[in-house]
Amino acid sequence: PPPLDLGQLAVPIVAPQWADFEPEPPRKVQRMFGGQQRYEAACEEARRDVDRAKADHELREAQRRWQVTEARQAYDRKIADVQREVEAHNAHIDELEAGLRENDRHAVSEYAQMVLDRSPYPAPFPAQRTAGYVPESSLLAVEWYLPLTDVVPKYKAFRHIKTRKVVEPTSRPVGDVRQIYQTVIAQIALRTLREIFDSTPEEMITTVVFNGR
């Protein structure tokens, strides 16, 4: 996990100093015309200002330390939550690995589902697919939601009519659409079989039933 970044909260607020408030002492000539009394009065006022500034500083510094404490506690809670998620995730991976070694129904089904879910398809294709394993017969049943025929481009070609300065599409014959669509479905089925068999041991799955919806 990244270290806690407190930003400006990590920097203590600088305490006020008397030098920042101390009035300028009177010169010799000024002292002759009451400058000393004015200086003493200014010093008294400056001391009151320093006291107020110190009280304000103590309040703001206490607030800063409280915010630091809150930030550290929130960070610790977040790290603890992440650690629990990591431990739960790793424990599940261990369970999945053990289940795969034993050809467990749920473990193999979940693993096959991961394989299918990570198989990328174009955006118009449905992403819904499910896998279920039958250990007694080493069979994997796959239910796949297939795309509709509109995944096949409607137009076969585009022709530029120079005399009219237009581009006219040529529609694809219905027979061509049907043939291309059947080819797409066949490719999906064969690709699914290939991905399943390539990602599992030979003795784990010997039969795949592909159900297209």
Description:
Strands 1-2-5 form a 3-stranded mixed sheet. A two-stranded antiparallel ribbon has the order 3-4. Helix 2 crosses helix 3 (105-117). The chain has helices spanning 28-32, 35-101, 105-117, 174-199, and strands spanning 129-134, 139-144, 155-161, 166-171, 207-212. 52% of the residues lie in helices and 15% in strands. It has 213 residues and is of the alpha+beta class. It contains 4 helices and 5 strands.
Coarse morphology? elongated
Strand order of the largest sheet: 1-2-5
- Show unreliable segments: none
Record field, number of beta strands: 5
Sheet/helix structural class: alpha+beta
What's the helical proportion of residues?
A: 40-55%
Characterize this entry briefly.
By secondary structure, the protein is of the alpha+beta class.
Q: Helix and strand layout, with pairings?
A:
Blueprint: H1 28-32, H2 35-101, H3 105-117, E1 129-134, E2 139-144, E3 155-161, E4 166-171, H4 174-199, E5 207-212
Parallel strand pairs: 2-5
Antiparallel strand pairs: 1-2, 3-4
Supply database-style keywords.
213 residues; alpha+beta; two-stranded antiparallel sheet; 4 helices; 52% helix; elongated
